[in-house]
Amino acid sequence: MGKFKQVMMFILDLVFLEKRMQFLQKISCLAFGLLLVSNQTYAIDLQPGDLVAPPPDLTLVQFSYLSSSYGNKYIDGIKQVGNPKIEVSQFLVRLGRSFKIADYPAFFYAQTPVGYTHPEGALSSYKGDAGIGDTSMLLAIWPYANRDTRTYWAVGGYLTVPTGSYDNNRAFNISGNRYQTALQTAYQIPLLDSLAWSAAIDALWSGDNNDYLSGHYKRGQSVLYTAQTALSYTINPTYSVAATYFYTTGGETTINAVNQQDTINLQRFQLTAMGHYSFGRISIQYGRDLQTDNGFIEDSRWILRYRKLF
Fold first, then answer.
1. Looking at the DSSP assignment, which residues form a beta bridge with residue 248?
2. What distance in Å separates the CA atoms of residue 148 and residue 295, rounded to the nearest whole number?
3. Which of 101, 168, 256, 273 could share a disulfide with 106, CB 3.0–4.6 Å?
4. Domain boundaries of the chain, sorted by first residue
């Protein structure tokens, strides 16, 4: 009887372990991609003009409004049943300052969003969130900046601090409730008098969210890598346009050390139109996901920005 009891207990342990893993995978699938709709989560998007080294002692003020809509959910590249929809809106304020580090151009900014995320359709039974988002900071330096040839090479370090709204009883939050750091390097050269090409790669490291969902689970994420390339065309001294392509991979998550096998393979694009005026620069952008293996696909993203250096 003693051996029979041990065998039965072993079988029950396996059953409960399997059910526990299935449960963790289900809640991960439920909330997977929700952090993707938070501020600056899966890529460090460079804007046209960001790679041009600024003169020292200039102050930046930038206001941005972002409206994004997410739709179908994918797991391992397969579209899932249902009609989910997530609406995200953010107003972002960025303050920055240019200076020099050992005679090299440098720049620092801090940015904080205010907004909401609202689940609809098949997700309408889940709570959304509204409030302040996580604060992001950048320190960039240009080891090479040749204004005569319009050739620039920049390196940047990013830090995101969980200052935003978060509640583990909500599946959808403005904040990711974790620290994130990133390193990025980027290069820009002119191809023609009015045409410039740029490319950048970055790696994003995420800390653990130790209060994930109502079960207080520990959610981790592996390094996320993004490559982006862009073409910018100057129509005249006032107007210019640009097109950017992004590819992101990595970012596999764990919940209580259980691997979720949800590696991100994401392709997307963004189009930009800019007007350079005496009172500042105004840009309007449109983008969307082209393909995603895991998570909710972004059907559209509109961004309106106002930027002023003085």
1. 226, 266
2. 44
3. 101
4. 2-309
Q: Which CATH number fits domain 2-309: 2.40.160.60, 2.40.128.130, 3.40.50.2000, 2.60.120.560?
A: 2.40.128.130
Q: Alpha helix locations (H) across the chain?
A: 2-31
The two structure tokens encoding residue 134: 């996580």
Tokens read off for 120: 């609809």
Beta partners for residue 280, in sequence order = 277
- Residue 2: which pLDDT band, with cuts at 50, 70 and 90? low
DSSP element (H, E) containing 73: strand 59-75
Rounded to 5 degrees, what are φ and ψ at 125? -80, -10
Residue 27, CA distances (Å) to 34, 143, 221, 297 in order: 12, 45, 15, 18
Phi-psi region of 160 (alpha: psi -120 to 50; beta: other; left: phi over 0): beta
Q: What is the pLDDT of residues 95-120, one digit of tens each?
A: 999 999 999 999 999 999 999 999 99
- Residue 227's region, left for phi above 0, alpha for psi from -120 to 50, else beta, is beta
Whether 9 shows a pLDDT value over 90: the answer reads no
Looking from the CA of 290 toward its CB, the CA atoms found within 13 Å total 11
